[in-house]
Design brief:
This protein is an alpha/beta fold. The protein is 39% helix and 19% strand. Strand 2, helix 2 and strand 3 form a beta-alpha-beta unit.
Length: 390
């Protein structure tokens, strides 16, 4: 391995290069642009043998990737914010076709008001599109996730597109020292892509067809099973990754000090680093705080959440998202997991970081302080007052 000082975007691009995609469809949008720029440099200097196609829009970028995947090519694209929303028509098309495209999304606020900074409303608005969704916590995980995402998406028991999310600017544009594996290591981890789900003149088959009321549910059920199967394949991919690269990840979630925690904060993405520091401070003061980071939102970690919080007195969900007129989308999913597990405890929802607004260390400490009141609430950080809508 070689150590490099890379931004999150660059780290992800290095991970994609190691995966040897055959087709890259690119359309720039802030703060994603650096990923496809870096990949274009790799193609130009010969370190990556791929077709780099600069298309005219984000909709075309995903359409191009679908076309490439439909003939059995390993395909990659990237986007952000309004670009992801422009792709929305194509997202379920890729998922329903079982085309294992990998797409990096730089999480960014959606308009209006116009804003280029990072929150997670773009990707969370597309949870029901049929894609696997993962959220990186740092640049090293971004690189590793880029490589693992192809393994997971292309597995025959999954065959589902994969959206890897990086927090805009906070992660995409900040620099860290990253271990970059050798190409030999990457090749040992990720085999070449082989599939029967492709157009083949020697063995003609029907792809992307219509299905009426009598058969449609069958196809949607199979699509659902593909994402559920991803849970096991994620574990297998991470075990294989640890054997080859020596870095181990923890599946759908990452627990920190939750074993004996009375008060647990659940979050996703790069803000988890700051929450971890807050947990350390509170632990030093004798308070029983814990962090549960959601690494994947689809498949959703129902059992992992239930096991992590079953002995807690209260929990809160901190997210950079709001489902207008209700509550945060992650909070809704977490409460569903608790209900299915028969766990009753107070849960609170904190909406923060919208439009890139800073979430401070003090605000996180205050969340833990408020959890001791053991009551349910929905709050916007930095606004004041509750937002329960009742």
């Amino acid at each position: 391995m070689a150590k490099k000082f890379l931004s999150g975007n660059e780290a992800f691009a290095y991970g994609v290069r190691l995966a040897r995609p055959q087709v890259i469809s690119a359309y720039p949008i802030t703060p994603q642009t650096i990923v496809v720029e870096k990949l274009s440099e790799f193609v130009e200097d010969g370190s990556l043998n791929a077709e780099f196609i600069h298309v005219e829009s984000e909709h075309s970028a995903l359409s191009c990737a679908i076309g490439a995947s439909s003939v059995g090519a390993r395909a990659f694209t990237a986007t952000s914010s309004q670009g992801l929303l422009y792709m929305a028509e194509c997202l379920p098309y890729a998922a329903g076709g079982r085309f294992p495209i990998v797409m990096m999304n730089a999480n960014r606020s959606t308009a209006l008001p116009w804003n280029i900074y990072g929150d997670q409303r773009d990707s969370l608005s597309q949870l029901d599109s049929g894609w696997i969704q993962a959220y990186a916590g740092n640049a090293q995980e971004a690189l590793d996730l880029a490589l693992m995402s192809f393994y997971i998406a292309e597995h025959s028991e999954v065959s589902t597109p994969f959206m890897a999310n990086l927090d805009g600017f906070v992660l995409t544009h900040t620099y860290e020292v990253v271990d970059v594996p050798t190409q030999e290591q990457a090749d040992a981890f990720l085999p070449g892509y082989e599939t029967e789900n492709k157009l083949d003149l020697q063995n003609p088959r029907n792809l992307a067809f219509s299905a009426g009321p009598d058969t449609n549910t069958f196809f949607k059920y199979k699509e659902h099973l593909g994402i559920l199967n991803a849970s096991e394949i994620i574990d297998k991919a991470e075990e294989r990754f640890a054997e080859i690269f020596g870095r181990r990840y923890s599946g759908l979630t990452e627990s920190y000090q939750t074993e004996d925690a009375e008060y647990i904060l659940i979050t996703l993405g790069s803000i988890s680093g700051l929450v971890r520091e807050a947990v350390d401070k509170l632990r030093a003061e004798g308070k029983s705080a814990g962090l549960l980071r959601l690494r994947y939102l689809r498949p959703f970690p129902n059992e992992e959440i239930a096991n992590a919080v079953k002995n807690a007195k209260a929990l809160a969900v901190l997210e950079k998202d709001i489902s207008f007129g209700n509550e945060g989308t992650v909070y809704t999913n977490v409460n569903s997991a608790l209900q299915k597990a028969g766990i009753e405890l107070p849960t609170s929802n904190y909406i923060g970081g919208l439009g890139g607004k800073n979430i401070s260390f003090e605000e996180i400490i205050n969340i833990f302080d408020e959890l001791e009141k053991q009551r349910s609430t929905v709050k916007f950080l930095g606004i004041g007052g509750e937002a329960n809508g009742d």
